[in-house]
Design a protein that fits this description.
Layout lengths: L4 E6 L2 H11 L3 E8 L2 E7 L8 E6 L5 H10 L5 E4 L3 H10 L4 E8 L2 E7 L5 E7 L1
Parallel strand pairs: 1-4, 5-8
Antiparallel strand pairs: 2-3, 3-4, 6-7, 7-8
């Protein structure tokens, strides 16, 4: 068994697609119209057949309180692996990305947490 798809709820799919591709560096995998929304996924360019991230519309009534509670408590909605947290932090901050947690070393793990501009906190992490 392996993870094939996971998702983050987003306020605006077009805005999310721009952020996740133009800023974070993912590539669009699927973009299928579904009424007023889309089945919109992105993947790592390093693993185009790997795990997909669904940029899921946040219209369900349970989404707002769920995301608000996570953000208020500083809990990331997702975690992405990077080779060098400090270098990625510098690159993204240079692009105007707002971080809620600067790089933090915890033993062999380094993490940082950013605001994806679409209603989520996202952790970047490196272990090693």
């Amino acid at each position: 068994m392996r993870i094939h798809l996971t998702s983050v709820f987003v306020d605006d799919q077009d805005k999310a697609l721009r952020f996740y591709t133009d800023v974070l560096g993912f590539v669009k995998k699927h973009d299928v119209p579904l009424g007023t929304d889309r089945w919109l996924t992105v993947v790592s360019p390093e693993d185009p057949d790997g795990t997909e991230l669904l940029l899921e519309p946040s219209g369900h009534p349970a989404v707002r309180p769920y995301r608000t509670a996570l953000a208020q408590d500083g809990i990331p909605a997702a975690s992405f692996a990077v080779d060098d947290v400090r270098a990625e932090f510098d690159r993204l901050r240079g692009l105007g990305v707002r971080f809620t947690q600067e790089p933090l070393e915890m033993g062999t793990i380094t993490t940082a947490v950013l605001d994806d501009t679409c209603g989520n906190l996202i952790q970047i992490a490196h272990s090693g």
